[in-house]
Amino acid sequence: MAGGGKTLKIQLMLEKCTEGHESNGTPTPADNNESGKSRKEVFYKGDGARFDLDTTIKFNINGTYELSIIFRPVVRIERMEIMGDVKTPSEKSRDLESVTYVAYFDTKAKQNSKNGKRDKIHIFLDLGEYGPLNFDLQAKYYREKDNHAVWGNQLHHIDLEAFCSGGEVKISKMLFW
Fold it and tell me: What CATH number is given to the structural domain containing 63?
C-alpha cells in the first residue's frame, strides 16, 4: 500500500481576513494582496491541563479565517471539512517535496465564549491513499474589540507530525509556534 507506514509533516497557518472576502469565504482580489494589509494575526495561549487540549487559539466572532496547510511529502486532499462544513481547498503552490492548500472558514455562527469554556474546531481531511485524518483545535471566541483576543502569543504556525498506517492517519505531535 502506497500510504502504509509513512510519516507526514504538516504545517497549519491561520490568518484572519479583515477585508476582501465575500460572505461565502471566497477570496476577492483585495484579499490576494501581497502587502498583508488585508490580514490580521491570530493569537494563542497555553492553558495547561485545565481543558481537553493544552493550547487555545483565539478567534473573533463574525470573522472569516484563512487556513493554509502545507504537506511534506506531497499529499492530495480528497475531501475537507472544518467544523462540519465541507470546504473546497485550493492548491496554492507545489514543488517536488511539498504542496500547500488554502481554505476559508467563518465564525459567524459562533457566540462569545463564556469564561472557563473552550470550543473545538474539528478538522477532517480525507488524504486519499493515506486515509482519513481527524483532529481538533481548541478555540475561544471573542467580540471584535475585546483585548483578550490578542493576549498571549502570536500564532505563526502549528507543526503536526502524523503517521500513516493501516489506512489511517494519526497525529503523533502538535507544536504551536
Answer: 2.60.40.10
pLDDT digits (tens, 9 = 90+) for 88-147: 999 999 999 999 999 999 999 999 999 999 999 999 999 999 999 999 999 999 998 999
> Nine-digit cell at 77?
486532499
Pairing of strands 55-60, 132-142: parallel
Instruction: Write out the three cell numbers for 86.
Output: 465541507
Cell numbers given for 18: 479583515
Cell numbers for 120: 473545538
Q: Cβ neighbours of residue 48 under 8 Å, at least 6 residues apart?
A: 54
The model's pTM: 0.86
Nearest Cα to Cα of residue 69 among 46, 94, 41, 51? 94
**Containing domain of residue 159, as a range?**
6-176
Does 1 reside within a domain? no
Bridge partners for 115 per DSSP: none
Number of domains in the chain: 1
Find out whether 67 and 11 touch, Cβ atoms under 8 Å. Answer: no
* Closest listed residue to residue 45, CA positions, set 64, 36, 58: 58
